[in-house]
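Morning F.,

Quick status update on the modeling queue. The single chain you submitted on Monday has been processed. Sequence for confirmation:
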Amino acid sequence: YRVDNPLALLEPAVNLREEYNDNYDLSSVDQDTVWETALEPSIRLSRRGDLWDISATERLVASQVNGQEGQDTVDNYFNVAAKRPFERGSFDAKASLINDTTFQNEELDFDTGVTTRQVDRTRNSLSLGGEYMLNETNWLEASLDYAMVSYDARPLDGLYDYDTLTPGLRIVHQYDQQTQVFGILSHSDTKY
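Structure tokens below.
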């Protein structure tokens, strides 16, 4: 089902999948086979206005694993983006909030043969950027990206919460139709 007009879009969707796996935990010993059933409802909204183009997406992934205990998950993915065009450039902003699970490698457990396990993770991010045309052959692009990742794990698991900040600046010169020269200045700072 989709509602669409020249200025707005509403698009819900549902995906159902079934997967078979005979070594879900990447074990070195024989395991029972598992069937994973995942239901993925999602919705996308977008609106084009006189000043801003805005869009948002929400997706939920609910997985049930039959044949193995403790592997069911519910993951959530939310993204929003906005763009503001100007006469000689544009400004972009994007943000996301993701709660999902990731596999963490462990040392081999000789009793169970298990080499991985699931760990809950939260990822938040924000990206700001823009471009400005200085003249017909030169333009400037700037960006600032921030990400914050946290795990529901013990420090002994080898997963550490971290924040990353990455500013960037790029200047581009269009020498002719086939030649473009650019310079990039970027830095990334990660804190654990």
